[in-house]
Amino acid sequence: MHGFIVLELEKFIMTQYGFTAWNAISKQANAAEISIDANQVYPDAMVFSLVNEAVAYTQTEPDTFLEKFGIALVPNLLKVYKAYIDPAWKTLDILEYTESTMHHTVRTNNPNVTPPVLEITRRSAKTMEIIYRSKRNIPQLGLGIIKGIAAHFGELPRLYITLTPCADEEAYRFDIELST
Ligand code: HEM
């Protein structure tokens, strides 16, 4: 996983649960000695150990932890990738162009960084569908990112999202609607 995400995870745990929590969690995950660099790529196993230890330490539901982390990720995600985001875009536009622009750029900049493949269909001005597929299987992080983007634009109270597993394969579908 991209060091940027791992650094954000460290920051999220420290701000939400404190420095002592991060020390204990990183030690349990055998990651205490690792200095995290935003430009490196870290093994997924290490990141999942950190998440699992954080879930155990904070006694949070894994889905809830991932969703909250996804929300917390957004301000810096939008800052770091600002150059690829049209200032006129709002929530549904950012979501519409995530795959073709942001995730695409992330992959092109470093082929070792592998964001999930999102199949995005803008159904109308106010509705869209996103299919998420990843061997990491953490759609709740995506749910948090979507909510965080909507919160950034003040559109969260009008955003309706359902997350459903696809019946026939290891994929998930987000149905998204922005009410007027
Ligand atoms: C501003 C828009 C976005 C940017 C710049 C962005 C960028 C990134 C980056 C850098 C990663 C790390 C990939 C890696 O370490 O291999 C990532 C992962 C991820 N992204 Fe995005 N992303 C954006 C929007 C979204 C949206 C809208 C979703 C909603 C489904 C999403 C879902 C995810 C998930 C779930 C991961 C975790 C890795 C996985 O599941 O395989 N992202 N993204």
Automatic annotation (TrEMBL):
Domain Heme NO-binding: start-end pairs: 2-155
Pfam families, sorted: HNOB
Record-level Gene Ontology MF annotations: heme binding
InterPro entries reported in the protein's UniProt record: H-NOX_domain_sf (IPR038158), Heme_NO-bd (IPR011644), NO_sig/Golgi_transp_ligand-bd (IPR024096)
Superkingdom of the source species: Bacteria
Protein name per its UniProtKB record: Heme NO-binding domain-containing protein
Source organism of the structure: Rufibacter radiotolerans
Phylogenetic lineage: Bacteria, Pseudomonadati, Bacteroidota, Cytophagia, Cytophagales
